[in-house]
Amino acid sequence: MNKVFLLFLIFLLFSSSLFAEGSFEFDTKLLPLLKKDNSIGKYLLETIDFSKSGSAIRIGQDVNPKLGGGRVGPYTIYAKPKGSSGPYIFKVTIVTSQKGKDEKGNSVTILNASRIEEEIVSIEIELTGVQ
Questions:
Q1: What is the pTM of this model?
Q2: Where are the domains of the chain?
Q3: Which residues on adjacent β-strands are paired with residue 92?
Q4: What is the DSSP letter of 112?
């Protein structure tokens, strides 16, 4: 029982570095991901205006020095109906799957990755209450 608890504590300490939150720029991080997706990504870009930045998971420097400070999903960003002049009334959360890749394109863990490839898994749109 003590070993299980110790392993759980080690996991929490390790994952806290991986799961810190940080901001991202829509144009450089999320827009390419939405453009890559031919179905829901295209639909969202045609129907919603996104704010300029949002928040996402920040990879810790101690987890992977090459990717430290980089962002991965889920991405949370505010949005509004396309062409609307009002406030951002939606909170959009885009959940992704991540695959670590090395320099040769082989699948590796995040600890050994030189880049991360992401795919959209799901999208949640909430009404923020600001109208």
A1: 0.78
A2: 2-127
A3: 77, 125
A4: T
